[in-house]
């Protein structure tokens, strides 16, 4: 019987099947192209199911599946065929929920795959042993341009930055009037502009959450201020791409650093790349970050054609450049994430902005 799953769930399974079928993966370039000259051989993939760990050993013609209560072989060709069926179904569907193609459910039963999204506590989707089945495992996240992508940073209200309202002191009716501006895609920008029109100004004050503040300070003691400026520009000027925002703050220089540091040393780009890589490798707003990477060591990107591209922390420059040129700031829910309003705290009004970073689709 057919069943439905989201494009994201299908994409994770598709990437997994492609690794098994191909027995190798191409490293991606910073411009999300396949680098066929640099391919890593895949020897084994480890994946978690609700009933335990499965190891998928890649042999010449078969995939040798070993689990707690199972030991069987499935032809590699079958994984190739089913990956093709999944790709075709995902690409041809105009809605997010995709019905399983004919034969796929039977194959999943045969391969003892019951969870389309792996169940892990360490945020990896699955782990890969390259070159040799006994090689150290490398944890990966899967992202797909064929589906809605999980953000790199989505901390909700934990990822809020506080701007202090200075200048003219607003009376309560004025504050209420500002906060009462109707919901719209640009309501945050409209409130910020109204504050300025009425003689107020907003200047960076702090990070709302103590842990997230410290995590950002681990990147640089001035990084929170820099990030707040990027988010402010995103709302007011509509610039969302991280690389374009970096170019903008190079001109405005919110940290008032020397030109040599900006242009010769690439300070702003360097700090942003450092932050993005930390996010990709496990930094979370509400979890203490001490510079130690999590179990996630890389990212597998399914591109619009269905190619699987590998980005790994050992290829640091490429990974950083990929993130720098392929990420954007996004707008979270104003009500859910509690930002975009003037709020009084210890006699002072603050205006919160929210940080949300995602990968671009193209």
Automatic annotation (TrEMBL):
InterPro entries for this protein: Restrct_endonuc_II_HpaII
Keyword Hydrolase appears in the UniProt entry: yes
Record flagged with keyword Hydrolase: yes
Keywords from the named record: Endonuclease, Hydrolase, Nuclease
GO molecular function ontology, one term from the record: endonuclease activity
Pfam family, one: RE_HpaII
UniProt-recorded name of the protein: HpaII family restriction endonuclease
Taxonomic lineage from the root: Bacteria, Pseudomonadati, Bacteroidota, Bacteroidia, Bacteroidales
């Amino acid at each position: 019987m057919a069943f439905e799953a989201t494009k994201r769930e299908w994409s994770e399974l598709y990437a997994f099947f492609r690794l098994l079928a191909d027995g190798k993966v191409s490293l991606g370039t910073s411009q999300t192209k396949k680098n066929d000259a640099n391919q890593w051989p895949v020897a084994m993939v480890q994946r978690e199911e609700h009933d335990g760990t499965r190891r998928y050993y890649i042999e010449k013609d078969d995939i040798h599946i070993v689990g707690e209560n199972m030991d069987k072989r499935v032809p590699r060709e079958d994984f190739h065929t089913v990956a093709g069926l999944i790709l075709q179904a995902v690409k041809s569907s105009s809605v997010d929920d995709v019905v399983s193609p004919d034969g796929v459910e039977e194959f999943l039963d045969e391969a003892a795959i019951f969870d389309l999204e792996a169940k892990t506590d360490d945020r990896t989707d699955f782990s890969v042993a390259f070159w040799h089945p006994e090689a150290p495992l490398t944890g990966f996240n899967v992202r797909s341009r064929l589906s809605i992508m999980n953000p790199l940073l989505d901390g909700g209200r934990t990822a809020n930055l506080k701007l202090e309202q200075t200048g003219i002191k607003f009376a309560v009716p004025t504050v209420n009037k500002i906060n009462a501006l109707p919901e719209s895609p640009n309501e945050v920008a409209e409130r910020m502009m109204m504050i300025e029109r009425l003689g107020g100004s907003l200047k960076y004050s702090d990070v709302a959450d103590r842990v997230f503040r410290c995590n950002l300070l681990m990147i640089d003691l001035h990084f929170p201020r820099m990030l707040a400026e990027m988010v402010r520009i995103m709302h007011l000027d509509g610039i969302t791409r991280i690389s374009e925002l970096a170019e903008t703050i190079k001109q405005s220089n919110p940290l008032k650093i020397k030109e040599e540091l900006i242009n010769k040393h690439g300070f702003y780009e360097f700090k942003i790349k450092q932050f993005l890589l930390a996010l990709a490798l496990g930094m979370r707003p509400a979890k203490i970050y001490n510079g130690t990477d999590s179990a996630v060591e890389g990212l597998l990107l399914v591109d619009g054609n269905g190619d699987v591209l590998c980005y790994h922390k050992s290829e640091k420059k490429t990974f950083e450049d990929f993130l720098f040129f392929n990420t954007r700031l996004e707008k979270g829910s104003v009500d859910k994430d509690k930002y975009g309003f003037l709020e009084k705290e210890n006699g002072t009004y603050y205006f919160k902005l929210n940080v949300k970073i995602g990968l671009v689709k193209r």
